């Protein structure tokens, strides 16, 4: 995976920057607008409210119309709490994987990608590919308008140090909308889950943000290298 260097750097920093013994058992994805009437796929209710002291996964669902065209690719990111940022003042509010859109960014590469979602639904998307932003520069999804929010619990000192290391560079060198290269926001989110929390999460190639959210609904910061105990 492109992000292995990120994981190694984060782990090295956390080992030197955390107190021994405190480690527990352990935009935005973009595309050009598609033509045709838009019909959002069914949206699940909030998985939980956004608490004041906890790191959360925040999701804007992918939307697909009746013809199978992606009209909104959606996004997924981590959001840290005010209390966690007080413990680590340089910690970003949002950590995610997105494409650079600044005036000096290299020219974007465009392609048409088609395939199947994890539930077997066919889709088509006008995908964009280009260099990625630093993870800590990800644009914040408003929690009040998000499709779903997952409470993962309060980060340990070790996890905070790892997250702080991850945010300083892109999760992967490049971003691509569809997941064809395993380098969109979904795969970036899963890479951070493995790097920071040691969670065993591996989304399918074309998984949507909401698919990964359902997979991660049971993960908590006190878990390490395990799947959720509730079976999600």
Give the helix level as a range of percent: 10-25%
SSE ordering: HEEEEHEEEEHEHH
Low-confidence stretches: 1-5, 12-51
Overall SS class: alpha+beta
**What value does the Rg take, in angstroms?**
17 Å
Strand order of the largest sheet: 5-4-1-8
The largest sheet, given as strand count, sense and whether it forms a barrel, is: 4 strands, antiparallel
Q: Would you count the extended β strands for me?
A: 9
| Form type | globular
From the N-terminal CA to the C-terminal CA, the straight-line distance is 24 Å
Strand proportion, as a percent range, falls in: 15-25%
Structural notes for this entry:
This protein has 232 residues and is α+β, with helices and mostly antiparallel strands. It has five helices and nine strands. The protein has a four-stranded antiparallel sheet. A three-stranded antiparallel sheet has the order 6-7-9, with no helix packed on it. The longest helix has 14 residues. The two termini are 24 Å apart.
